[in-house]
Design brief:
- The protein has about 260 residues and is of the alpha/beta class.
- It has a single domain, classed as 4-Layer Sandwich (Nitrilase/N-carbamoyl-D-aminoacid amidohydrolase), CATH 3.60.110.
- The strands form 4 sheets. It has a 6-stranded mixed β-sheet.
- The radius of gyration is 17 Å and the shape is globular.
- It binds acetamide.
Length: about 260
Protein backbone atom coordinates (compact mmCIF):
# COMPACT_ATOMS: atom_id res chain seq x y z
CA UNK A 1 0.00 0.00 0.00
CA UNK A 2 1.35 3.42 -0.95
CA UNK A 3 0.97 6.00 1.83
CA UNK A 4 1.74 9.71 1.35
CA UNK A 5 2.01 12.92 3.28
CA UNK A 6 1.18 16.10 1.38
CA UNK A 7 3.32 19.03 2.57
CA UNK A 8 1.78 22.35 1.54
CA UNK A 9 1.65 26.03 2.53
CA UNK A 10 -1.92 27.24 3.13
CA UNK A 11 -2.50 31.00 3.49
CA UNK A 12 -4.63 32.45 6.25
CA UNK A 13 -7.83 34.07 4.99
CA UNK A 14 -7.27 32.88 1.40
CA UNK A 15 -9.83 30.13 1.08
CA UNK A 16 -9.89 29.99 -2.74
CA UNK A 17 -6.11 29.95 -3.00
CA UNK A 18 -5.97 27.15 -0.41
CA UNK A 19 -8.52 25.16 -2.37
CA UNK A 20 -6.31 25.39 -5.44
CA UNK A 21 -3.25 24.32 -3.43
CA UNK A 22 -5.26 21.32 -2.19
CA UNK A 23 -6.38 20.46 -5.74
CA UNK A 24 -2.76 20.60 -6.92
CA UNK A 25 -1.47 18.27 -4.22
CA UNK A 26 -4.38 15.84 -4.81
CA UNK A 27 -3.51 15.78 -8.47
CA UNK A 28 0.15 15.07 -7.70
CA UNK A 29 -0.93 12.25 -5.37
CA UNK A 30 -3.05 10.72 -8.11
CA UNK A 31 -0.13 10.87 -10.56
CA UNK A 32 2.07 8.80 -8.23
CA UNK A 33 -0.75 6.35 -7.45
CA UNK A 34 -1.12 7.04 -3.75
CA UNK A 35 -3.60 4.82 -1.89
CA UNK A 36 -3.70 6.70 1.40
CA UNK A 37 -3.00 10.42 1.76
CA UNK A 38 -2.68 12.75 4.74
CA UNK A 39 -2.91 16.54 4.39
CA UNK A 40 -1.98 19.08 7.11
CA UNK A 41 -4.14 20.49 9.89
CA UNK A 42 -6.43 23.40 8.89
CA UNK A 43 -5.37 23.05 5.26
CA UNK A 44 -8.43 24.97 4.01
CA UNK A 45 -7.94 27.99 6.26
CA UNK A 46 -4.37 28.70 7.34
CA UNK A 47 -3.57 28.87 11.05
CA UNK A 48 -2.65 32.24 12.60
CA UNK A 49 -6.06 33.92 12.78
CA UNK A 50 -6.59 37.47 14.02
CA UNK A 51 -10.33 37.48 14.46
CA UNK A 52 -13.29 35.17 14.72
CA UNK A 53 -14.62 36.61 11.42
CA UNK A 54 -11.46 35.40 9.73
CA UNK A 55 -11.94 31.85 11.03
CA UNK A 56 -15.65 31.89 10.09
CA UNK A 57 -14.82 33.02 6.56
CA UNK A 58 -12.73 29.91 5.91
CA UNK A 59 -14.77 27.40 7.92
CA UNK A 60 -16.92 24.86 6.12
CA UNK A 61 -19.27 22.07 7.02
CA UNK A 62 -18.17 18.49 6.50
CA UNK A 63 -18.92 16.83 4.11
CA UNK A 64 -20.88 19.59 2.29
CA UNK A 65 -18.01 22.10 2.01
CA UNK A 66 -15.86 22.57 -1.07
CA UNK A 67 -12.72 21.06 0.42
CA UNK A 68 -14.67 17.97 1.47
CA UNK A 69 -16.06 17.67 -2.03
CA UNK A 70 -12.55 17.74 -3.54
CA UNK A 71 -11.43 15.09 -1.07
CA UNK A 72 -14.49 12.92 -1.69
CA UNK A 73 -13.85 13.02 -5.38
CA UNK A 74 -10.15 12.13 -4.95
CA UNK A 75 -10.99 9.21 -2.67
CA UNK A 76 -13.03 7.35 -5.31
CA UNK A 77 -11.56 4.11 -6.74
CA UNK A 78 -10.39 2.68 -3.43
CA UNK A 79 -8.36 5.62 -2.10
CA UNK A 80 -8.47 7.03 1.45
CA UNK A 81 -7.62 10.54 2.62
CA UNK A 82 -7.51 12.40 5.92
CA UNK A 83 -7.19 16.19 5.95
CA UNK A 84 -7.28 18.90 8.60
CA UNK A 85 -10.31 21.12 8.09
CA UNK A 86 -11.49 24.31 9.75
CA UNK A 87 -15.01 23.05 10.42
CA UNK A 88 -18.28 24.88 11.04
CA UNK A 89 -20.91 22.97 13.04
CA UNK A 90 -24.22 23.97 14.65
CA UNK A 91 -22.42 24.32 18.00
CA UNK A 92 -19.48 26.36 16.72
CA UNK A 93 -16.06 25.98 15.08
CA UNK A 94 -13.78 22.96 15.35
CA UNK A 95 -10.24 22.14 14.36
CA UNK A 96 -11.11 18.83 12.71
CA UNK A 97 -9.70 15.98 10.65
CA UNK A 98 -12.10 14.58 8.09
CA UNK A 99 -11.67 11.10 6.62
CA UNK A 100 -12.92 10.06 3.17
CA UNK A 101 -12.64 6.75 1.34
CA UNK A 102 -14.26 5.29 -1.77
CA UNK A 103 -16.03 8.60 -2.39
CA UNK A 104 -17.69 8.53 1.05
CA UNK A 105 -17.31 10.45 4.30
CA UNK A 106 -16.00 7.99 6.89
CA UNK A 107 -16.07 10.38 9.83
CA UNK A 108 -14.69 13.50 11.47
CA UNK A 109 -12.38 13.76 14.46
CA UNK A 110 -12.48 17.04 16.39
CA UNK A 111 -9.18 17.94 18.04
CA UNK A 112 -9.20 17.24 21.78
CA UNK A 113 -5.94 18.99 22.77
CA UNK A 114 -6.05 22.58 21.54
CA UNK A 115 -2.72 24.40 21.21
CA UNK A 116 -2.09 28.03 22.20
CA UNK A 117 -4.53 30.49 20.55
CA UNK A 118 -6.61 27.71 19.00
CA UNK A 119 -8.53 27.98 22.28
CA UNK A 120 -9.73 31.45 21.21
CA UNK A 121 -11.46 30.14 18.08
CA UNK A 122 -12.27 26.47 18.40
CA UNK A 123 -14.42 24.32 20.64
CA UNK A 124 -12.59 21.39 22.14
CA UNK A 125 -13.57 17.99 20.75
CA UNK A 126 -15.00 15.62 23.34
CA UNK A 127 -14.78 12.26 21.61
CA UNK A 128 -12.11 9.60 21.56
CA UNK A 129 -9.90 9.63 18.45
CA UNK A 130 -11.28 7.26 15.80
CA UNK A 131 -10.03 4.25 13.89
CA UNK A 132 -11.55 3.69 10.44
CA UNK A 133 -11.59 0.35 8.67
CA UNK A 134 -11.14 0.51 4.92
CA UNK A 135 -10.31 -2.42 2.62
CA UNK A 136 -9.21 -4.46 5.66
CA UNK A 137 -6.78 -1.74 6.73
CA UNK A 138 -7.23 0.25 9.93
CA UNK A 139 -6.44 3.95 10.04
CA UNK A 140 -6.20 5.88 13.32
CA UNK A 141 -6.49 9.67 13.32
CA UNK A 142 -5.13 12.35 15.62
CA UNK A 143 -4.29 16.03 15.07
CA UNK A 144 -1.00 17.82 15.63
CA UNK A 145 -0.60 18.64 19.38
CA UNK A 146 -2.22 15.31 20.28
CA UNK A 147 1.36 14.06 19.78
CA UNK A 148 2.27 15.47 23.21
CA UNK A 149 -0.23 13.12 24.91
CA UNK A 150 0.99 9.54 24.48
CA UNK A 151 -2.41 8.31 25.66
CA UNK A 152 -3.85 9.26 22.26
CA UNK A 153 -1.51 7.07 20.22
CA UNK A 154 -1.93 4.29 22.79
CA UNK A 155 -5.72 4.44 22.52
CA UNK A 156 -5.43 4.23 18.73
CA UNK A 157 -3.17 1.18 19.08
CA UNK A 158 -5.62 -0.42 21.53
CA UNK A 159 -8.36 0.18 18.94
CA UNK A 160 -6.15 -1.78 16.51
CA UNK A 161 -5.07 1.04 14.23
CA UNK A 162 -2.17 -0.05 12.03
CA UNK A 163 -1.13 3.48 11.11
CA UNK A 164 -1.76 6.88 12.68
CA UNK A 165 -2.70 9.52 10.10
CA UNK A 166 -1.65 12.82 11.67
CA UNK A 167 -2.53 16.18 10.07
CA UNK A 168 -0.32 18.85 11.66
CA UNK A 169 0.69 22.51 11.77
CA UNK A 170 3.82 22.08 13.87
CA UNK A 171 5.76 24.92 15.38
CA UNK A 172 7.67 23.25 18.25
CA UNK A 173 10.65 21.22 17.00
CA UNK A 174 9.98 18.02 18.98
CA UNK A 175 7.01 16.34 17.39
CA UNK A 176 8.73 14.54 14.55
CA UNK A 177 11.07 12.86 17.06
CA UNK A 178 8.20 12.12 19.45
CA UNK A 179 6.33 10.34 16.65
CA UNK A 180 9.33 8.01 16.24
CA UNK A 181 8.78 7.05 19.89
CA UNK A 182 5.00 6.70 19.42
CA UNK A 183 5.77 4.21 16.62
CA UNK A 184 8.18 2.20 18.74
CA UNK A 185 6.06 2.06 21.89
CA UNK A 186 2.92 1.04 19.98
CA UNK A 187 4.54 -0.92 17.13
CA UNK A 188 2.54 1.19 14.72
CA UNK A 189 3.16 3.16 11.51
CA UNK A 190 2.69 6.93 11.62
CA UNK A 191 2.26 9.53 8.86
CA UNK A 192 2.62 13.17 9.97
CA UNK A 193 1.71 15.73 7.29
CA UNK A 194 2.96 19.14 8.33
CA UNK A 195 2.68 22.53 6.63
CA UNK A 196 5.44 24.97 5.68
CA UNK A 197 5.85 28.73 5.55
CA UNK A 198 5.64 31.66 7.96
CA UNK A 199 2.28 33.20 8.84
CA UNK A 200 2.19 36.47 10.83
CA UNK A 201 5.58 35.70 12.34
CA UNK A 202 4.87 32.03 13.12
CA UNK A 203 7.10 29.59 11.23
CA UNK A 204 6.00 26.02 10.63
CA UNK A 205 8.55 23.23 10.65
CA UNK A 206 7.72 21.14 7.56
CA UNK A 207 9.70 17.88 7.83
CA UNK A 208 6.62 15.74 7.23
CA UNK A 209 7.43 12.11 7.77
CA UNK A 210 6.29 8.51 7.66
CA UNK A 211 7.66 6.05 10.24
CA UNK A 212 7.51 2.27 10.32
CA UNK A 213 6.59 0.09 13.29
CA UNK A 214 10.14 0.25 14.65
CA UNK A 215 10.34 4.02 14.41
CA UNK A 216 12.46 4.05 11.27
CA UNK A 217 11.75 7.10 9.10
CA UNK A 218 10.71 5.83 5.69
CA UNK A 219 10.29 9.40 4.43
CA UNK A 220 11.35 12.72 5.84
CA UNK A 221 10.67 15.84 3.79
CA UNK A 222 12.70 19.06 4.09
CA UNK A 223 11.74 22.16 6.10
CA UNK A 224 10.26 23.91 3.10
CA UNK A 225 9.70 21.18 0.51
CA UNK A 226 6.27 21.15 -1.01
CA UNK A 227 4.35 18.27 -2.54
CA UNK A 228 4.13 14.58 -1.81
CA UNK A 229 6.40 12.32 0.23
CA UNK A 230 5.47 8.67 0.05
CA UNK A 231 6.42 5.14 1.08
CA UNK A 232 5.17 1.64 0.29
CA UNK A 233 4.20 -0.03 3.57
CA UNK A 234 2.90 -3.37 4.73
CA UNK A 235 0.37 -2.36 7.36
CA UNK A 236 -0.08 -5.93 8.64
CA UNK A 237 3.32 -5.58 10.35
CA UNK A 238 1.52 -3.43 12.93
CA UNK A 239 -0.75 -6.32 13.94
CA UNK A 240 2.02 -7.94 16.02
CA UNK A 241 2.99 -6.06 19.18
CA UNK A 242 5.83 -8.38 20.05
CA UNK A 243 8.91 -6.71 21.54
CA UNK A 244 10.82 -9.87 22.46
CA UNK A 245 9.87 -13.57 22.50
CA UNK A 246 8.30 -12.91 25.93
CA UNK A 247 7.16 -9.30 25.71
CA UNK A 248 4.32 -7.56 23.97
CA UNK A 249 3.72 -3.81 24.09
CA UNK A 250 -0.03 -4.13 24.64
CA UNK A 251 -0.39 -7.43 26.53
CA UNK A 252 2.33 -6.58 29.06
CA UNK A 253 0.61 -3.40 30.21
CA UNK A 254 -0.54 -3.19 33.87
CA UNK A 255 -3.70 -1.05 33.60
CA UNK A 256 -4.60 -1.77 37.24
CA UNK A 257 -1.51 0.26 38.20
CA UNK A 258 -2.37 3.11 35.83
CA UNK A 259 -5.64 4.30 37.38
CA UNK A 260 -3.96 7.65 38.09
CA UNK A 261 -4.11 8.24 34.34
CA UNK A 262 -7.88 8.46 34.42
CA UNK A 263 -8.12 10.84 37.38
CA UNK A 264 -8.66 14.47 36.48
CA UNK A 265 -5.75 15.77 38.60
C1 LIG B 1 -0.53 22.41 16.88
O1 LIG B 1 -1.25 21.64 17.51
N1 LIG B 1 -0.96 23.00 15.79
C2 LIG B 1 0.85 22.67 17.31
Amino acid sequence: MRVAVGQIEPHVSEYKRNLQIIRDVLSEAKDVEIDVLVLPELCNSGYVFESREEVEASAESIPEGQTSRELISWSRDGRFVVAGICERTKEGLHNSAAAFGDGKHFGTYRKIHLFLNERDWFLQGNEEPPVYEHNENRFGVMICFDWAFPEVARILALKQAQIILHPSNLVLPYCQDAMVTRSIENHIFTATANRTGTERGVTFSGSSQITDVNGKRLVRMGLSDSGIGWADVELKLADSKSITARNDSLRDRRPGLYTRLTQDD
